[in-house]
Specification:
By secondary structure, the protein is mainly β. It is 6% helix and 51% strand. The protein contains 7 helices and 42 strands. It has a 22-stranded antiparallel beta barrel. A 4-stranded antiparallel beta sheet has the order 26-27-29-32, with no helix packed on it. A 4-stranded mixed beta sheet has the order 31-30-35-36. Strand 13 and strand 14 form a beta hairpin.
Length: 825
């Protein structure tokens, strides 16, 4: 449901909108059986391009080549008779999806039922990854006079096999290690990555005699084949709904909803992995999450028509109860090789944590509305919530809304030009509470160091004075249809502002905490949505319907904490870039980074887009030491163009997806430049690089060329040309702007072709319907982006929009092709 006014009755969880899902149910008549089956295949639609001319190695300051223990490819040219391995291209496989569903439904005048079973099985493009989910669902409805009872239930089991991709194991705990993508994209092309294991089962290491294990990196095939990351989720959802019609203008409804799941995560890091010494004999973790959500609703609805007026009144109350239990067991160093068990560890190497999270919310709400001659509509709502996550003095908060619409064409003479016209407007306020226990500050358990005992705070500081986050929004718009409904236009302009935003920003650690819960400021969004739909052709045997939608949003961070220049909502930091929101009217989806310094004018101010400064102490471009806003990840405009063409029983549908503007950081290219694998680094066959700008000391125009076969004295140090070329590319990688693109794209998001065989089967009594469909997804992309795919969000566990627009060592985007059939009995 669009807009805060539409969501105002649904409580704090609806602060950012509502998605309503209506489950299927049976229909009156005979029993009906439907069977759907689909098979799909997917593949990486674009991979990083690597140079294959220079091998591993680095040159020291005096030009001495080192190849021992070096993964970076800054070494000499690869001999012509050497074998080059396409490690990246050979790593990924075709993914496959099998999706099958069967359902049985039926009903009578007073009741209906719907029963379904489905299985979804997918293998990913990364070897060793897959997902399997089986679901059973039942919906039933029965009428007893004025009482209608509806019950629904679903049970699913999902199993996931995955792998460490980018982040590996967090180095902050001394785990070190890299993920499969990080290792894959930096592996020298002169080594066959498939040679990952020795005959004795240990990891084959190309620098085993040079690097200590903790200083080495894991082979991607070792990570996907020897390490093990699995997850299993059992989920049960259900609900009972009773509606009693007291009179023809008054009914009462009661609902009970239940959602419960248990997730068991399993992580095994094999002995012999490139980790800190503490974990080189293996690591095991088991994590169990038990989640329960119970909701109740009781409401009464009055509806009455009096002359030309139609009025309604709704009153209700609701409760929500969340209960999450989390238990984690982990340990390290298996005593006996080959036995993966906590019983195979010393007791001092085993750890257990347990946490319970409770949250309760109670709400009371009402809605009153009236219409006149089905032409003028006015609705007002009000809701009050009481949330356990806020301090007692602030746990109650009220939010109202009002909306109206006017079908003005009711007052106009009938016209074939303007068939229908409606204007609408709304204003709403929606409240939102905090995360559980955000008001509390916790200490870590005491630790003993020798004869001393230490205590300390946890990373997060609570706030006992939090107040509710409030979003206020308004929107205006209209719906218009022309030429006897052959052409339609829907327009919306909106503005919303969230004040007292509850967040835990990263602040100065001098306060004793890394993150602090607080009401941090405001977020402002303005935007517009336009949809144009038309029946381009409308004939008996041929129709062509099209819809063009277009929208933009301008997100800005309002007033924030005094003295805080940038708000980092997550730890999305990749390469030189951080995901950041900029206070006092700056970008909400901004990026901070670093850049070269430009030349100064006569007043000592930097000239925008002027020549770069060259630092005489390094012989390279001078870096700006300040943290800068280097980009805005929010698109300028997005849109879609949907077309549906039908000729008799054949239907063609395709969707074009459009984006204009919005910055993307190509962190994968950044990493490959650092490693010497980027094709950019082949400039001048690595024989020379040239820098041009102004001397940062004297301000004079300066051009310097570094040749590989010469030496250069900078300050008191003499550098070889080969070393200066390496340093040039490190200096190049330090400038965030060298990897940021304002992205435009046009994607063939999907194209499908469906044929209905019903006419062929109408003379028999068993099969009542048969359709076959082929679908292609993400088959074509036209873009100015030079990386893998501009539609990116980096890995690393950041939530929401935290890493949107940051392309860093991720799994490639996929294209797919599928074939499916639907049979009705």
């Amino acid at each position: 449901m669009k807009g805060a006014a539409a969501a105002a009755l649904y409580g704090s969880r609806a602060a950012d909108g509502v998605v309503l899902i209506t489950t299927k149910k049976g229909e009156e008549g005979r029993v009906r059986v439907d069977f759907n089956s689909k098979i799909s295949t997917s593949w990486a639609n674009k991979l990083p391009e690597v140079q294959t001319e220079f091998g591993p190695g680095v040159y020291s300051t005096n030009g001495v080549l080192s190849t021992d223990g070096v993964y970076s490819s800054w070494g000499p040219k690869i001999p012509a008779d050497s074998t080059i391995y396409d490690n990246i291209g050979n790593f990924f496989r075709h993914g496959v999806i099998y999706d099958n569903n069967v359902n049985v439904s039926g009903g009578s005048k007073n009741g209906s039922f719907y029963l379904s079973g489905s299985n979804f099985k997918q293998t990913g493009i990364v070897p060793g990854t897959d997902y399997d989910k089986t679901t059973f669902r039942f919906n039933g409805e029965q009428k007893y006079g004025n009482l209608t009872i509806n019950a629904n239930t679903a049970y699913s089991v999902a199993n996931t096999n995955r792998t460490l991709t980018t982040a590996g194991l967090w180095a902050g705990l001394g785990y070190s290690g890299v993920g499969s993508m990080q290792a894959l994209y930096g592996w020298p092309t002169t080594y066959n990555i498939k040679n990952y294991i020795n005959p004795d089962g240990s990891q084959h290491r190309i620098y085993a005699g040079t690097l200590l294990l903790e200083d080495d990196r894991d082979n991607p095939y070792w990570i996907i084949n020897e390490d093990n990351l699995t997850s299993k989720t059992d989920r049960f959802t259900g609900g009972v709904n009773a509606n009693y019609k007291v009179t023809n203008w008054w009914d009462v409804t009661a609902r009970l909803g239940y959602d419960q799941y248990t997730t068991n995560d399993y992580t095994y890091i094999a002995p012999g992995s490139a980790l800190a010494p503490l974990f080189q004999n293996g690591r095991l973790s088991k994590d169990m999450v038990n989640y329960t959500y119970i909701t109740t609703t009781v409401m009464t609805n009055f509806h009455k028509t009096i002359g030309d007026f139609d009025a309604h009144l709704l009153l209700g109350t609701t409760s929500e109860d969340f209960n999450t239990k989390n238990q984690n067991l982990w340990g390290y160093a298996f005593s006996t090789p080959g036995t993966i068990s906590f019983n195979n560890m010393e007791n001092t190497n085993k750890f257990f944590t347990d946490a319970t999270t409770r949250r309760r919310l109670v709400g009371a709400y009402g809605e009153v509305g009236a219409s006149y001659k089905s032409m003028v509509y006015l609705t007002a709502t009000g809701r009050n919530d009481w949330s356990s996550t806020l301090p007692q003095q602030n746990w109650s908060y009220f939010y109202p809304s009002v909306s109206g619409s006017f079908i003005f064409t009711q007052l106009l003479p009938a016209s074939n030009i303007l068939t229908f016209g409606k204007l609408r407007a709304s204003w709403a306020r929606v409240g939102k509470d905090a995360n559980p226990y955000a008001t509390n500050t916790y200490e870590n358990p005491p630790i003993t160091i020798g004869n001393f005992m230490g205590v300390g705070n946890q990373y997060y500081s609570g706030n006992p004075n939090l107040i509710p986050e409030i979003q206020t929004s308004w929107e205006v718009g209209g719906t218009f249809r022309f030429l006897n409904d052959r052409l339609g236009l829907d327009y919306t302009y909106y503005h919303n502002e969230t004040k007292n935003q509850i967040a835990q920003p990263r602040l100065a650690q001098s306060g004793g905490f890394i993150f602090s819960a607080l009401n941090s400021g405001s977020v402002i969004n303005n935007g517009m949505e336009v949809a144009i739909n038309g029946k381009i052709v409308s004939q008996k045997d041929f129709t062509w319907d099209a819809t063009l939608n277009f929208s933009y949003n301008r997100g800005r961070l309002g007033a924030f904490l005094p003295g805080v220049a940038y708000f980092y909502p997550t730890d999305a930091q990749f390469g030189t870039i951080k995901s950041a929101s900029i206070p006092n009217g700056g970008y909400f989806l901004g990026m901070t980074g670093q850049s070269y310094l430009h030349a100064n004018d006569a007043n000592g101010k930097e000239i925008p887009n002027g020549p770069y400064q060259i630092d005489p102490t390094t012989g390279l471009y001078k870096m700006n030491t300040a943290v800068l806003v280097v980009g805005n990840r929010e698109p300028d405009y997005i849109g879609g163009f949907v077309n549906t063409l039908r000729y008799k029983n054949l239907t063609l549908n395709f969707l074009l997806d459009i984006r204009i503007g919005g910055d993307v950081f190509n962190g994968t290219e950044y990493a490959m430049v650092i490693n010497g694998l980027s094709k950019q680094t082949l400039l001048n066959d690595r024989q020379s690089v040239t820098i041009t700008g102004v001397n940062s000391g004297s301000g004079t125009d300066t051009t310097i060329t570094y040749n590989a076969n010469q030496s250069y004295t900078i300050g008191s140090t003499t550098y070889s040309g080969t070393n200066m070329i390496q340093r040039y590319w490190s200096n190049y990688a330090a400038n965030s702007y060298n990897f940021i693109t304002s992205v435009n794209w046009l994607k063939l998001r999907s194209v499908s072709l469906t044929y209905d065989f019903s006419n062929v089967l109408k003379n028999q009594k068993v099969i009542k319907g048969l359709t076959a469909t082929v679908v292609g997804t993400n088959l074509l992309t036209w873009t100015n982006y030079k990386g893998m795919d501009p539609e990116v969000s980096a890995a690393g566990g950041t939530g929401g929009s935290g890493s949107t627009g940051i392309d860093y060592l991720g799994v490639p985007a996929v294209a797919s092709f599928s074939f499916g059939v639907n049979v009705k009995f």
